[in-house]
Amino acid sequence: MMLTGPMNGPSRITRAGLASPARAAIGTTLAGSALSALSKAPAQVAGLFHRRFPTVAVTGMTGVGKTQLADRLSRHTPAPGTQEVGSAVMERRTRRSAQGRGFRFRVVPGDNAATRLGALDDVFHDEPVDGILHVVAYGHATPRRAAGITGSAVATPEAQREAELEDWAITAHRIAAMAVRRDKPVWLIICVTKADLFPDQVEDAVRYYSPGSGTPFGDKVDELRALAGGARLSIDVLPVCSIGGPKGSPMSEKRCSELLTAVENRMSQLSGHH
Q: Where are the beta strands (DSSP E) in 54-130?
């Protein structure tokens, strides 16, 4: 009787003593796994959101219709009287589809101001975008008056295309620098907007901005492709208009909607949404 108790007692104590550290180790492992999963969750959620809502920079000189285009693509209704006023700060728009996908637009100011250069740094360096809509108007940009000057602002189509080349040089340099840093290709769509103002010249306008065309702008696009590397940068040139004319006009509202849809579809293809 005396031997039974001590033999059984230590045996039970030993089992209990071994079980406690084991349970602690298992608990520590489970807790560590849970914490690791939780720590990774925000990054995984952020990555999923980024894939579903890639960021798109909308660039171009002042007066070409960047904000109007972003408004149409994002289904945003602007406040009355703001359509013809250029913004001095970066504007943000979001497009959400019924399929839970979309785009986040970053509209860079067109004026040559510190805010514009800062916005360019934001979208191409600090928080690099996935794609770019560079907006041009084939010499039909809305002229802006300089501060303190009254009367109508006037600029010839030739002068405007020269200004577009100067603006493009600033933007293209940043696109090339971003493209060579990225581990995945970047896409660029050159949007030839205000096509309703030159319906009989749309094909000529698209050619003027296209790589390999031999035009002043086309040569600059070729230079960008050479700097960035053809495999790192996809380039498309598409006509578009934000405001169409009445039914039966050369560029009706229906035709404008079709052009906008073509831009949307290409963006979706390039972003892997299709």
A: 55-59, 91-96, 102-107
Report the alpha-carbon angle 258-97-269, nearest 5: 60
Largest Cα separation within the chain, whole Å, is: 116
| pLDDT beneath 70, residues of the chain | 1-52, 79-86, 98-99, 112, 144-154, 274
Report pLDDT for 10.
Answer: 46
CA 271 – CA 188 distance, rounded (Å): 11
Residue 17 CB partners (closer than 8 Å, separation 6+): none
Residues 76 and 161 in one domain: yes
Same domain, 6 and 136: no
SS (H, E, C) 128-183: CCCEEEEEECCCCCCCCCCCCCCCCCCCCHHHHHHHHHHHHHHHHHHHHHHHHHCC
Which domain range does residue 31 map to? 1-52
Buried b (16+ CB within 10 A) or exposed e, 117-126: eebbebbbee
Render pLDDT for 50-107 as a digit per residue (tens, 0 to 9): 556 799 999 999 999 999 999 999 988 776 655 555 677 889 999 887 667 889 999 9
pTM to 2 decimals? 0.78
Q: 180 and 223 share a domain?
A: yes
CA distance 208 to 200: 14
* 244 and 136 both lie in a single domain: yes
Query: Exposed, middle or buried: residue 12 (CB in 10 Å: 0-12, 13-18, 19+)?
Result: exposed
Taking only the tens place, the pLDDT of each residue in 150-159 is 445 668 999 9
CB of 220 within 8 A of CB of 210? Answer: no
Whether residue 32 is found in the same domain as residue 137: no
